[in-house]
Amino acid sequence: MRSLDPTERAVVNGLQGGFPLTQRPFRDAGAKLGLSEGEMIDCIGGLLAGGQLSRFGPLWNAEQMGGAVCLAAIAVPPERFEEVAELVNAHAEIAHNYERDHELNMWFVVSAAEPGRIDQVIAEIERETGLAVRAMPKTREFFVGFRVEV
Amino acid sequence: MLDAIDRKLVAATQTGLPLVSEPYRVLGERLGLAEAEVIARLQRLLDDGAIRRIGAIPNHYALGYTANGMSVWDVADESVAEVGARVGALDFVTHCYERPRYLPLWPYNLFAMVHGRTRDEVRTKVAEIAALVGPAARAHEVLFSTRILKKTGLRIAA
Predict the structure, then answer these.
(1) Quick check: A114 pLDDT over 90?
(2) What ipTM does this complex have?
(3) Chain A: residue nearest B26 by CA?
(4) How far apart (Å, rounded) are the C-alpha atoms in residues B96 and B90?
(5) A12, B55: Cβ pair inside 8 Å?
(6) What residue segments make up the domains of chain B, in order of their start?
(7) How far apart (Å, rounded) are the C-alpha atoms in residues B146 and B124?
(8) B100, exposed or middle or buried, with CB in 10 Å at 0-12, 13-18, 19+?
(9) What is the pTM of this model?
(10) Architecture (CATH level 2) of domain B67-144
């Protein structure tokens, strides 16, 4: 992992939100960080090329777009783990899937444009794997003030 | 709800803004919209919560935040709103949700995702949450991710 230079650090720490909606947003955001418009654009381009940023722009809220997202977990017998991971991952609706250290050891996110599709995908996975899928839809979301500090 | 033009804006920006001095004008040219309309729509979508924020979206792993702990808490139903609000406000919590329990396998109803450079750093942060929450949490655990089995970006059809 390459360490960030002070300019890159300032951009990552200072710009995780609040990018201006103005005609010259890189210039305006740079003014607060002591950077020129050109330095801002070059720096962000470099961070994207280097993979330190996954994107630069709006972070869209999938649910507000009429889509639906649901976390789900399965307690997979260890000897079947790879086979079940393949069956789950084969569904296009599975965006993320993680192995975690718990009896419920497979945690994935089902996302679909149509809310009704979530239950269908979960039923398909239960049928294909013969294992119970515990759907864990969020019942309440709390505001988070998260920033990565580098 | 988003209209057809909003959805075009989603499709045009979900991989990012153009890295040019006037990104909203360039976006408008691609979509046949005036720059002022692009800016006004993005502002409205931000105000409505359809856009969570605009800026740098870090890749946690590439920045050294390789430990990812899902802390889960058993909080009395009547306290979860108040406790969740306080936990979510911590600057190291990336997501904070109430979710259903599956007793007896799964007694936890509050989820707070914590990222750190090491597992010890995550455990230290979880201990901070435990101290903040106090006896309102009857039990908690941290589930570390031991492997990424699949990860794809959000894809929304225009």
Answers:
(1) no
(2) 0.77
(3) A23
(4) 10
(5) no
(6) 4-48, 67-144
(7) 19
(8) middle
(9) 0.78
(10) 2-Layer Sandwich (3.30)
User: Which ranges of B89-155 does DSSP label H, i.e. alpha helix?
Assistant: 119-133
How far is Cα A52 from Cα B88, in angstroms, rounded to an integer?
A: 25
Q: How far is CA B30 from CA A23, A146, B8, B12, B17, in A?
A: 16, 32, 10, 8, 12
Tell me the mean pLDDT in the region A125-138.
97
Partner A, chain B 14-53, Cβ-Cβ below 8 Å: 14-17, 19-25, 35, 39, 42-43, 45-46, 48-53
B103 secondary structure, DSSP code: T
Partner-chain contact B89 A145, CB within 8 Å: yes
CA distance A65 to chain B (A): 6
Enumerate the β-bridge partners of residue A96. A109, B151
Angle between helices B4-13 and B35-48 (to 10 degrees): 90
Residue B84 tokens, joined: 């969740």
Side chain identity at A2, as an amino acid letter? Answer: R
**Length in residues, chain A:** 150
Query: What pLDDT is recorded for position B158?
Result: 34
Residues of B in contact with A52 (CB under 8 A): 58-59, 62-63
Contact A32, B31 (CB under 8 A): no
pLDDT at A1: 61
Q: How far does B85 lie from chain A, in Å, by closest CA? A: 6
pLDDT at site A64: 74
Q: For strand B51-58 and strand B110-116, is the pairing parallel, antiparallel, or unpaired? A: unpaired
Report CA dihedral (A111, A117, A118, A120) to the nearest 10 degrees. -140
Look at residue B66 and tell me whether its pLDDT is greater than 90: no
pLDDT band at A68 (very low <50, low <70, confident <90, very high): confident
